[in-house]
Amino acid sequence: MAEYNLSAKTVIVTGAGRGLGRAMTEALTEAGANVVAAAHIEKDFPELQEACSSNSGKLECVTGDIRKSKDCDLIISKTLDVFDEVHGLVNNAGLTFTYITPDAYRRDAFKKRKEYPKFYEASDEVIQNVMDTNFVGADMLSRRVAPHMIEKGWGRIVNVTTMYRTMTRQGASPYGPSKAALECATEIWSKDLEGTGVTVNVLNPGSGAATPGMAEEMKEYSKSLENPILIEPELMKAPIVWLISDATNQISGMRYDAKPWDPKKPASEEAERIGAKAGVLLYSMPDY
């Protein structure tokens, strides 16, 4: 049973068909929330619907590409048509390394980082798609839901980013810059929404990568390590339920990592232990 009851909440989760998005959707519906699962791969929905079928919260699946403004409008309008209101938005949809450099996730290539492509070798199409999915789409949806939340005096925006060392690792462009943009936006949006009852926070998997899209040999290699480089999506469940709950009414502009989060302990204690200001690692250099 979930630690918090979300039975009165309606939440949009992007990239909900698989991986982190699916895990968070399962957790939110289990906690009683109504979830609009938005994704552009429609074939992922039947398994998601089956996984959530016995949960107390209702699930509505919407096919859409958040890179397109009309699809963002569709996701919002569908949410309001079905559930009448929107309380939360989880900006999870993203294009990762498996889209930018798919061959890098063979075990042999992973161990030879010099094989990673240089930033100037990426095509215009790759750059545009990654930035549009990881930042622009999240921005478009957030700008559309914020007025609804402000009117109600309560809301949650949760942005899924990544670790700073992942943002800046070799071969991470344009993935890293797109996530850095969302991290910085989190801080700006939290300031803009101060006093409205709407909070904006970051939840990221932690040090490593989520398992979907990785080759099976890469998954097996990760399991053999003392500190696995791949992260199971289920680790996102406890923190996302806490972030959407009333327990975080006074918490905004923060970032939380799922990997070190212990779901067996009270969420408030884990949040206190793990939380840091959004963008804090970007402030490591002094101003001159």
Provide structural commentary.
There is one protein chain. This protein has eleven helices and ten strands. The protein has a single domain, classed as Rossmann fold. The chain has 288 residues and is an alpha/beta fold. The chain is 41% helix and 15% strand. The protein is globular, with a radius of gyration of 18 Å. The C terminus is likely disordered.
Task: Considering the chains and any ligands shown, give keywords for the structure.
41% helix; 11 helices; alpha/beta; two-stranded parallel sheet; 288 residues; 10 strands
Integer count of domains: 1
Helix amount, in percent? 40-55%
What does the average pLDDT come to?
87
Order of strands across the biggest sheet? 3-2-1-4-5-6-9-10
CATH class: Alpha Beta
Runs with pLDDT <50, length 5+? 214-219, 284-288
Span between N and C termini?
Answer: 51 Å
- Classification by helices and strands: alpha/beta
Radius of gyration based on Cα positions: 18 Å
| Known CATH architecture | 3-Layer(aba) Sandwich
Q: Element order, helices and strands? A: EHEHEHEHHHEHHEEHEHEHE
Give the CATH topology.
Rossmann fold
Number of helices: 11
Can you tell me the CATH superfamily? NAD(P)-binding Rossmann-like Domain
**Beta-strand level of the residues, as a percent range?**
5-15%
